[in-house]
Specification:
The protein has twelve helices and six strands. The chain is α/β, with parallel strands linked by helices. Strands 3-2-1-4-5-6 form a six-stranded mixed sheet, sandwiched between helices. Strand 5 (224-230) and strand 6 form a beta hairpin. Helix 4 (57-67) runs antiparallel to helix 5 and helix 7 (117-129) packs antiparallel against helix 8 (135-148).
Amino acid sequence: MNKKNVDPESSPWAPFGIQLRKSREAKGLRQEELAPLLECSPSHLSYIELAHRPPSRRLAELADEALDTGGTLLLMWYQLKNAAILEGFPEYARYESLAEQIKIFEIDIVTGLLQTRAYATAIEMGYARQGNGTEKLADERIEFRLNRQKILERTSPPLVHVVLDESCLRRIVGGRDIMVEQLLHLEQLTTRCNVVVQVAPYSLGENRPFTHMAHLLTMPNRKVLAYGEIEQRGYIDRDSKSVAVLTKSYDRLAVEALGQTESRAFIRAVRRDLEWMST
């Protein structure tokens, strides 16, 4: 049977269909074998792979589970359905779901991969109250963010190394109880073998290498990609020279920041201080 090639620019849903077919073939499954797992007919699956029909969210979720894609297909579905997400970020999220190593530096807010649902909800609803979208769009952003966290639970999870500026811990988001839960979650994450959380204390002063957030992804082919944001737009940096500069700065930051054990104790101390605060 001849396989029809799909032009990735032929339809907004073409990249999804191409990725779905590649993932199915990588598992050695025929459409007739995968379709029942996706609760659809083989012909319907064929239409989706050829970008003749858009997938449902349910199908994307089932496909991720059946094909062990680490949530990639659902992230692609969100990219096309959720215009509320920062431009450029869905592309980053797809690379993130495939990366073998993820390095993040964050300022002011705990990075999305490590957020609790309550913390993420407080942030997004705060944006909605400020007029930056509706509550419905906020709900979609929350689900998108939490779906990204599935990579931490997959069979072969990436190594995630996060350095949080002290401001991430000091800035109370959602009130005391939500912040205490978030800090406890960070403490628990530091016990995982594939997660490293460090704190860059205020005392670093001018020795902190970064003035803005930074994300670095090491892909399976060992290529390193960087992600940054400017003026409400995210972008992927593939230039080897500029990425090398960022990598060097990140390595220096990791040395300057508190170690994992010290960072866990620091987070615990901040949490306990909050627990003693009067309501």
